[in-house]
Design a protein that fits this description.
Helices cover 50% and strands 17% of the residues. The chain is α+β, with helices and mostly antiparallel strands and 138 residues long. The strands form three sheets. The protein has a two-stranded antiparallel sheet. The chain is elongated, with a radius of gyration of 22 Å.
Length: 138
């Protein structure tokens, strides 16, 4: 850390995507000691820049999949005839948003395409896979 006027400024080194820094700050002047955060540590996880032409469609398709899956569930539990009609776009949105664009967003952000089954690193992919299997089975 360095002092600039009345402020202490600290710089962290550049980290690669998915890099982590764990730190705590101990300030001491004479016998006065202050620990930040008190009794703990701060964990920072770094991510890379996701290309906008991947990120925007990924967000649109993931939110579309969530909305369509809600509509599909309502149709299913109300025994309506539109269930099959709405489930097909839901599956398409899950495939495009979760299994095509999702791994590219993951790669740009954290340097790995797939961290779900069988690696078990990322629960988001596991939830997406479970939702996909449920829609295929229904």
């Amino acid at each position: 850390m360095s002092r600039k006027n009345d402020n202490l400024i600290g710089y962290l080194p550049h980290q690669p995507p998915a890099g982590k820094s764990i730190y705590r700050i101990i300030l001491q002047k004479d016998n006065d000691v202050v620990e930040l955060p008190a009794g703990g540590e701060v964990i920072i996880r770094f991510n890379g820049d996701v290309q906008i032409f991947i990120l925007i469609p990924h967000i649109i398709f993931i939110f579309g999949a969530m909305l369509l899956s809600t509509g599909t569930a309502l149709e299913y539990f109300n025994n309506r005839k539109n269930f099959k009609t709405i489930s097909i776009p839901t599956i398409i949105f899950i495939i495009i948003g979760g299994f095509i664009l999702g791994p590219f967003a993951q790669y740009y952000a954290f340097g790995e395409f797939w961290t779900g089954f069988p690696f078990w690193y990322d629960l988001i992919y596991i939830k997406m896979l479970i939702a996909f299997i449920v829609f295929l089975l229904s």
